[in-house]
Amino acid sequence: MARTDHSFPAGSGSPAAAPAALRGRGAVTNVRHRFQRDDRVQVDDGWSASGLPADFVDSVPDNFSDTAPRVIPILPDTRHAPPAPKTTVTAEEARKMLSRNDSPDIPFDVAVNPYRGCEHGCVYCYARPTHSYLGYSPGLDFETRLVAKANAVQALRAELGRPGYKPSPINIGSATDPYQPIEREWRLTRGLLELMLETRHPLTIVTKNGLVARDLDLLAALAEQKLVVVYMSITTLDAGMARTLEPRAAAPWRRLEAVRSLTDAGVPVGVLVAPVIPFINDESMEHILQESKAAGAHYASYTVLRLPWEVKTLFEDWLNVHFPDRAQRVLHRVEDLRNGRRNDPNFGTRMRGTGVWADLLRQRFAVATRKLGLNRHRLALDCDRFLRPAGAPGTAGAASDFLSPVGAQASSGVPFPAARPVAGGARGRGMRQLHAAAAGQLSLFD
Which DSSP letter does residue 175 get? Predict the structure, then answer.
């Protein structure tokens, strides 16, 4: 059988032009985002025989004789490799927290994201293009230049307390992982969970970090009232592959341990095999489902690789760096799943693809979940328990019946007061500042 030649010349998108991988980062470069009007590219202008840039070449003295042979001395290259990009976090004050959508293929219509960007560095993340709205690159900037919505809890409290608000399950983690590494210090997600428990509001969580087990006290209390489901995203059980795909996410075994801890505490857990990438992790689907079921998961789902906007270029560069031997094979299979394109934005087909290979994945998933007993029932979250937050119009001055778990702290680090009246407006802010000062720490949100 004749072989198809997928070779191509060196240039953009080829292994010969691929940049070097960065330790601990998913993206290999900062790609130009779609709102950027100019671009800067480093080139060798040929002035340096050694390949050094022009500013490393000594200039010719003014008194140099025209008849003397022209010799341009070259300075020794004392430069060092550029330092690895460090993670920086900028605080912002959000005007609102609730983000609504009417997408027919998304199982929730309201979402909350306490952070912008994600330090996990998953190269395939469909949320990377959202960083373009900040003027940042969806590449390395997405995983190094993070934004924390410092007033997340107070902003959400205000929205939940608005007249006419009708509760529906809020998803935490649709465009960023709420348990990414910076959550250890910022504790914004824990603050949101405290608010959800106080108001008896239903929610779902999507994460790929074992840090979610830190909040077992709150999650277990929510689960007792049928208010929460946690979905753990597991793309592979191979630790080496995981370090390449999602370098700063929790190791696969830690995610399974978190699933086990959550289910032991009575928290319903599902697993997401997402995304399925042809010839990278597609052979692991059944194994992931089997280990997740053994750890206690009750639900499962999957999606195939999506490459919207700048993610397409980022993923191609990543393939050429880490898997140059199969890069074109992977991309051609993606095109098979997407009607000949690298990305399909259409509702109904964007999540699981079309064609014979999509049908094969669908059949494999169905057989595996049926054998393992997954997805036999769906937990209906209870929206009838909702209580308007204390301090909302119509409830000002009313004492909250929410009791913080013993030893728990609000996301600011200040102990959460039990059964304490919450005042609104400037007076409420002043009272909170006085309380925080008495505790020896000003509130992060004030």
Answer: S
